[in-house]
User: Fold these one by one.
Assistant:
Number 1:
Amino acid sequence: MIGAIIGDIVGSRFEWDNHKSKEFELFTHECHFTDDTVLTMAIAKAIMETEKTIEPSPGRYGFDSDYYKLLSEMSIKFMQEIGRKYPYAGYGRRFHGWLFSNNPTPYNSYGNGSAMRISPAGFAARSETEAISLTKAITEITHDHEDGLKGAEATTMAIYMARQGNSKDEIKEKISTEYYPLHFMLDDIREEYTFDVSCQGSVPQAIKAFLESDSFEDTIRTAISIGGDSDTIAAIAGAIAEAHYGVPEELEKEALEYLDDELRGIYEDWQEFISGCYN
């Protein structure tokens, strides 16, 4: 999930001051982590804690309903527990209400918050079916609108397919057939593209930023260059790019310097957890 974290941090200074070019310094003193990183960490924590309680089935396929029920509960628990520690991270108004509610319920959202936090599911899943089920359990606790779920699921699926070694053409075909039409070029929309926090208005653009890139860093630069909700678009694109290209060690190290001890600790725990999943 370091790709999402890097995208968030790099994009943070451009969210309200769009920079429609790929020429800029990646990390500056104006950069900071936002709600994208906080909630991504919370979902990673939820997945890890769920698996401490319920052992996955052999090969990590076919979790039963108890697993997904607990994952939903853990997602609520840790998004609230961790999210409340960062009250000024940049949450949307309705999510902020959910975050501080004593009885949090889904609020029919189709916002891109569902996609920006979902990357841990894409990296934990061992099958397409599992990727979809993980996404649903995590997402529907807030984003129960079909477009909110679609944005999260498209992101998870792109990450999962990239991890499995599928080509960009195969990923594009899957997303175009089952989620969003991707037969456009970013150069053709860049000039008029504006801020849009809906899944349908930002997730396809983030996926295209990855598809049109030639490296991890180029993905981040391309995502920023179209403007809009820069930190979230770059976080989504960065997560997919991580799965496809990997992340240069120097960029990982630089991004981690922006995290506090608590978030850094969750990240380190996740690295150990996800490494164990693949061994």
Note: Residues 54 and 67 are 6 Å apart (CA to CA).
Number 2:
Amino acid sequence: MRRRALLCAVPSLALAPALLHAQPAPAPGAAPGGFPSKPIRYIVPVAAGGGSDMVGRTVTERWGKLLGQTFIVDNQGGGGGVIASQNTAHAAPDGYTLMQGYVATHGTSPATRKLPYDPVRDFTPIGMIGATPNVLVVNSSLPVTTVAEFVAYLKKNPGRVSYGSAGQGSLTHLTMELFKQQINSYMVHIPYRGISLAFTDLIGGQTQAMFPGLAAAVPHIRSGRVRPLAVTGLQRHPQFRDVPTLDESGFKGFDAQQWYGVVGPAGIPVPVVRQLNETLGAVLKAPDLRDKLSVEAIEPMVMSPERFGDFIQRDIARWTRLAKARNIHLDS
């Protein structure tokens, strides 16, 4: 009996070391090495309450659940994203500080002014979130309904048409300058401090045209106070399928979008980057997220870190070429 008891105990004794050293199962989305083992700081380079802030909070709420850690949203407005970008670039490259980079911090601003950070070398691209197109809109009293009619109207009324923007060097400014460059025509630029003021004067007839982001234009389009002629991008937007793209309207490849993505400081380890990118992609593929982002007319766009990095460099290069050609230099 004693021999039988000893033999029965042997399997249990053999398992004992494994049980002593067993680790709890990692949370879904956890990377090898225990990342993430603490909350992740997510810097949004605008004040709380706007569309960009909503995008960040909506994405990180779901992202945190998948990674098994909390994202702490840190709004750092000021300087057109410069403060947030500097703080991100100087953070430890361990994956615990990320920033919601967007078309201003990693597109139009580097093209039009000197910055205290390098938008490529100082950052690690994690992945794209999504983008919303810009839309060419005109005052509803203007006698045009298509892009072709608008171009013809400009040719017949040289110097009599003005357009508003959200400010010098903004995407709304550069997009219209790109349009002007392609049609070889002239419009007076009236920069405002923000898109709301620009819309007030467009609706009131003080200006005649604008190239705002679609999200800002939606309520004015639906009220009939402005008329949409075309959207940027290569596909019609799901919310306005009757509005053609500029590509369809004869401006092949015309693309300018208000995009949002995720970057971190340069030097984040590749396994951490991969884990962050894969889990972000899983979040973006969820149907309920698309519904949430539709409030800002944003279409999710899943990209690998390499593809997103290439996207940033191409966007900077495109706006830099335009800024040089149109002599748009905000430091002078």
Note: DSSP finds eleven helices and eleven strands in the chain.
Number 3:
Amino acid sequence: MLLDNVLGWFSMDMGIDLGTCTTLVCVRGKGIVLNEPSVVAVRKGTNIVLNNGEAVGLVAREMLGKTPGSISAIRPLKDGVISDFEITEAMLSYFIRKVHGRGKLIRPRVVIAVPSGITAVERRAVIDSAERAGARKVYLVDEPMAAGIGAGLPITDPTASMIVDIGGGTTEVAIMSLADIATCESIRVGGDDMDEAVINHLKRTYNLLVGEPRAEKVKIQIGSAAPLEEELTMEVSGRDTISGLPRKIVITSEEIREALKEPIAAIIDAVTRTLEKAEPELAADLIENGIHICGGGSLLRGMDTVLGNATGLKVIRVDDPMTAVARGTSVYMENLESWKDTMEHSESGW
């Protein structure tokens, strides 16, 4: 560990929130240095990344749903886990190079946040992909633990801290105490499922076909989990499934809220199940400490309200909820010695 720490002075060690929708990279002393979509553009039928391996992230996101027949813009992670190993490796390699630079002799150590519910095989896949992408040593930390650290919760104290991290592919719910997870639920439901619910609603109700980016825009602009003081409307353009021609309609926040009911109900169920499994003393702590929410899904209007109504607890959205996990991985990296008993890591060459 001493040699590892010395080498760390000559490399730019980093924490990575490897998300289904977005990848964030945090570096000690610099904060979030990269925030890009988890998207890669390749030649169709191959794993050849376009633009000499540079068609990743923001560049590739612009291609989603707009590519010609010879190009595919793909997301190599699904439900928080790797679905395409080679493309994930190419994406990680691009992000690590972009942050670390090509000129440094010593490769970086990397902490990666992963869903708490993934299997040992899926964890190994993340480590292998990061190593091949250029990491010297790879450490894994469960997303709820990283989120709690990044949110500044007292997770090392003998009191209960509860976090609900609503990401693109998964929702992580955990109660933590004494630097460990006491009980947790990891479900493969998140922002992607909300987008899919919007797509299905528009197709079923209006015979209008829209892509994921436009559905996400609808969710952000007028989506809600609870009734609004002033309901909203929005124009949406897409392709008519009957005529095949472009068409524009006006939709309301009420109908989108109804469309989002199923994924929101799944998240509420995960939260209540976690509370039901908690030890009595930890459950009692939460009366005072409440529930903290983070991740992109926590920004949905009224999400804090519906969780509060379902549990009877106060619900607090953490500061800068989109970056809580990434910030937590960076703090974890800075304090590896303190966390070494709970670390899952790889040993590799310099």
Note: Residues 152-189+266-319 form a domain with the Nucleotidyltransferase; domain 5 fold (CATH 3.30.420.40).
Number 4:
Amino acid sequence: MKANIEKQYKILVVDDISINVVVLTKILEIKGYIVIGANNGKTAIDIAEKEDIDLILLDVMMPEMNGFEVCRKLKEIQKTKDIPVIFLTAKIGMDDIKEGFSSGGVDYISKPFNNQELLSRIKTHLELMQTRKNLSKVNQDLIQANLMKDKFLSIIAHDLKNPLGSVIASADLLNYHAMEMDRNEILKLSKIIGSTAQKTASLLDDLLIWARSQTGTISFNPKQIDLREITIENINFIENISNKKHITITSNINQELITCADKNMINTIFRNLLTNAVKFTPNGGSIEIFGIVKNEYLEISVKDTGVGMKQEAIDKLFKVDSIKSNRGTNKEIGTGLGLIITDEFIKKHKGLITVESEVGIGSNFIFSLPLRLDCA
């Protein structure tokens, strides 16, 4: 019976003598490892590129391409460069050992080897490899966290500072010159204050939702919902801003689209996609919403006749380090976080979002959610 280990590591055994591969395979499989054999260097490199190999046991003395050459080639390939290589050979001269390490090997065991020593060293190098992977992931997470922190501070410093400055300036004018102003001037300033305050509140909402999603404090409560009803609710919700630009929003969802999802998150997804479409659609344009059931998924698309985007802009839409707050066709402002939040909420539902766009023609944001009727 194979021993229980947390992960079934995959080991590549490379030796031109078949019986050696068979013997090593039996020793390793008893300990629960998955073993793949290769009898020459070229085959070993091909396997390492195709499979997810965790460690390589590599013979040095092989025809055509010796072990040192194989190791050097593996270290030149992106996918295989970090795989630990242990040399197994009867060559035990100091020069051979030096060449083994200089070619990228992590250890050197002479033949004939002791089974327990071999297994112990394999276990040690697998643990070191796993530790390096874990540290690399932690490092990437820290880099991502710093990017988010920097973006958060950037939005506070710029996107919130500007509208708040406008509110303060308008309020100061009212405070110090209200007695000298006529009614129309006062109304104009009060409208500026009200409109800017609403935009600032919207920016804050985005920031708070995003912060909660990053810290894992946002709740996820899937319930049975009808996407057709949610579509209508959100069209009505943004009616004021769409009417100001004389943009027609049409829903072509004519049937119930029932699934199990978090209603608050789905509402946020719809609001972000619709407000984004209105923002980048010129006055008099149109937005159409479609919904179908496709391959066990509900697929919703929000298609506009807006300014469109080039492919390089599409590639950056859902990346935190590429967030950019672009002004809309009527100079509307935003944090650039709306689509990031949308992407995160869709992924939370195990869904996917894609974008089709053409400059001067418009954009089509398509998101899919698994068709689930059981909320258990």
Note: Confidence is low (pLDDT under 50) at residues 1-6.
